[in-house]
Amino acid sequence: MPFEVAEASISEIHAAMRAGTLTCRELVNGYLARIAAYDKNGPAINALIVVNPAALATADSLDKRFASGGPVGPLHCIPMIVKDNFETRDLPTTAGSLSLSGMVPQQDAFMVRRIREAGAIVLAKSNMAEFAFTPYETVSSILPGYTKNPYALDRATAGSSGGSAAAVAASLGEAALGTDTGNSIRGPSAHQALVGIRSTMGLTSRDGVAPLNLASDIAGPMARTVADAVAIFQVVAGEDSADTVTARSRGHRAESYVAALNADALKGARIGVLHQAYDRESTDPEVVRVFTAALDDMRRRGAVIVDPVAVPDLDAKLRTAGGCNQFKFDINDWLARQGTRAPVHSLTEVIASRRFHPTIQMRLEAAQAESLPPARNPGCASRDQFRAWLRTSVMALMDSLHLDALAYPTWSNPPRLIGDLNTPHGDNSQLFSPSTGFPAITVPMGYTRGVLPAGLQLLGRAWSEPTLIGIAYAYEQATHHRRPPASTPPLR
C-alpha cells in the first residue's frame, strides 16, 4: 500500500524510509497532492501563499544522499510549512503584505537554516495575519480571502500563525514554524488540535523574522504531536550571535529535549490551576467542562492538582502597566536590512504604498504616530517594570506551592465564526508567558460543539522546557485527543 501522509509522524516517515518502502520524492508528492486537492480546491483551506517549486528536486537530492550515506539529519526529508514572516533565500517573504510582494531575502532565517541543515524541506510558505497584527483571524493582503479552520470551514484559525496551523492540521505539511508575540503559536495550535511551543525568551533565535515587537517575539514549532514538536525544537533551540537575546540561554539549553518525552512525567507533578488566566463571565461552559476533564485525567496519571492558585495584586498592577508600541522601530530596522531587495524600506513607505489589507490601516497609522523609541518611551519603561514584577510574582507563587507548572485553557471560548469580531474571543495567551518571558506549551485537550478543538496550556519557570515537555507528553499519551479534521480526509 502507498504510504499515507495524512497524520504521519516524523518517526513513522523515517521508519518507512529505513524499511525501503518510502522515498523522499514519494513523500513530497503525497503532500503536494493534498495541497492540490485541499488548499485552493475542495474545502479550500487557503492556508498557503506559495509552494516551493524546487521541493521535488530537493527530495531527489535527499534520496541520493540517503542511498549513499543514510539520513542527512534528524529532520531528513520532513516537509515543513514556514510562516511568511520567516526569511527564505529561495522563496518570497512578505509578512502577508502586498507592500512586500516579490521580496526574496538574501539568506534564510536562523530557524529555517537550522531545519534545512537537519534535512527538512521547506515545502511552502503559509498565510498569516498581515504583519502578525491580530491574534483573532488569518487574513492578509498577499492572499485573497481568509484561511479556514479545517475542523469547521466557517470558523477562524486564530492568528497570526493560522496558515501554519491550518496546513499542519490538514496534513498539507508534516509540521510548521510559527511565531508568537502574544498568542500566535499557541492560539492557532489550540484552535486546530496541534501542539505549539513558545520557549523561554532567549532560548530560540528570531534572526531573519519580520518583527512585530521584539520585546515579546518568539519563533517555534507547531506539530500534530508533542514528539514531532520536540524533534523540531531540538533542532532550532540554541544561541545565535545574530540575536543577542539568545546569549541568555548560555548554560540553560538542555542537551536533549527529546529525552524529556516521558509518558510517566505526570506522576508526582504539581500543577496549579491559574484561574486568573481564563476565568471570566464570558468563559464558555463547554471549555470549562473539557478543561475540568483534563485536570481529572492528569490526576488519574498521578499529578497533584492545586486548585486554585493566584498571583496576588495582579489586577492592581495591571492598571499601572504602560503601553509600548515599538512596531515602527523594529520593522524599520528589519526593512533597512533587506536593502534593495525590499520594495519598501520603512513603515512610512508601507503606508504610502496603500498595498495592505484595510483592516490593518489603523494599526499601521498608530505605530507610525509613535515618536519615542522604546529606550526613551515612559510607557515602555512602565511595561518593563510590570514585567519584572510579574516574573518575580509568578516565581514566588510557584516556589511557595512547589509547583512544576501552571495550567489553564489556551482559549476560554471556541473558535469564532470567520469575520466575527464581536462575540468573546477567549484568548488567554497574551499575558503570562509573553510578559514573564517564561515558556508555555499548548496540547490538545478535547473538543467543544463536538468538533471544535480546545487546547490545554502549561506555563513553567524560565528554562523549564524539559519539565513542560514531559507533562505535555504524558498527558497526550494518556488521552490522545488529536484527531484529523473531516474536511481533508486521506486521498484515494
Q: How many structural domains can be distinguished in the coordinates?
A: 1
- Radius of gyration, in angstroms, nearest whole number: 21 Å
Which residues sit in consecutive blocks of at least 5 with pLDDT less than 50?
none
Number of beta-strand segments? 11
Q: How many H/I helical runs?
A: 15
Helix content: 25-40%
Tags for this entry?
11-stranded mixed sheet; alpha/beta; single chain; about 35% helix; 15 helices; Amidase signature (AS) enzymes; about 500 residues
Report on the architecture of this protein:
This protein has 492 residues and is of the alpha/beta class. It has a single domain (10-479), classed as Amidase signature (AS) enzymes (Alpha-Beta Complex), CATH 3.90.1300.10. It has helices at 10-18, 24-38, 55-69, 110-117, 162-169, 186-191, 226-236, 285-300, 314-320, 327-338, 347-353, 361-369, 378-400, 432-436, 465-479, and strands at 48-51, 79-83, 121-126, 175-180, 195-198, 218-223, 270-274, 304-309, 405-409, 440-448, 452-459. A hairpin with a 3-residue loop joins strand 10 and strand 11 (452-459). The protein is globular. It starts with 9 loop residues before the first helix and ends in a 13-residue tail after the last helix. The mean pLDDT is 98.
